[in-house]
Amino acid sequence: MKGCVLLAFLALCSAKPFSRPSYKTLKDMMLKDMEDTDDSDTDNSLFPTKEPINPFFPFDLFPMCPFGCQCYSRVVHCSDLGLPSIPNNIPLDTRMIDLQNNKIKEIKENDFKGLTSLYAVILNNNKLTKIHPKAFLTTKKLRRLYLSHNQLSEIPLNLPKSLAELRIHDNKVKKIHKETFKGMNALHVLEMSANPLDNNGIEPGAFEGLTVFHIRIAEAKLTTVPKDLPSTLLELHLDYNKISTVELEDFKRYKDLQRLGLGNNRITEIENGSFANIPRVREIHLENNKLKKVPSGLQELKYLQIIFLHSNSISKVGVNDFCPTAPKLKKSLYSAISLSNNPIKYWEVQPATFRCVLSRMSVQLGNFRK
Description:
This protein is mostly beta strands. It is built from 2 helices and 18 strands. It is elongated.
């Protein structure tokens, strides 16, 4: 008995000071969870404030951790190891597991079995082609799932209803079925860029009942603005598609929209009154399109602060294209109006045209080359 006590004392004396790794960057990326804070019996945060303390040993002399991985504070790091599959022996109390930059081709039914506290799974940059429909059956607290840069042909079925963020950028998804997001009422961020998805690939009712705030479907094959996305959207990014026109009905559902990305499309016309349906918008990207004039209705947007129109075919700017005739109608001054790389004779633009900007540095003109 004395020998055991002596060994424990020597281990404590020789141990180096413990320094907790910094999670500032990861925490900054996380959205604030919409979880029940009244549940005092369970701690569902990714970075718990209460740690179980062993009265005899303040650390685990023999922690369980998959071979080659690093485990601490309920976070398992297994990235960049060339793993062909999900490793075994993942601690059951794991909150986050990082498996990016490996060679995983398939997620099997029991790969995450028993990981009931799992909060985030990072599987970016693998070779995933298949995910078993029951793979996430027991991960009822999963909030973040990152599947970008893989080879998935469809969004996995039966994803946890608790998901708040799903990123499936750069895969081979061509279809969003009506049942894909059914019941996922907590989903707030959806990233689906760089998939061969066109307008016909989004089935009617696919987003019914969802409260998504951020959607990005850039670098896809969309020819029009999707009209059946969640009405709760605050940010919609459709850059690098094949959209040629913006119609009056395109934004009718998205009255709370604050950021709109339509850059690098083929837009030649924006129907009058289109922007009247998004009165709260603060930022609009229309750069690298084929517009021949400044879109109408900008002067009526009280909160608009940033408008990018560079690299179009705009040849003339009117004195009331950006600012209302009555100064009090504009609540937010422009911090950026970009008109560079357009065939505008900037010496013909009247100074009063930009009377509602913060400063002259907020306006970019010139730099047009034939």
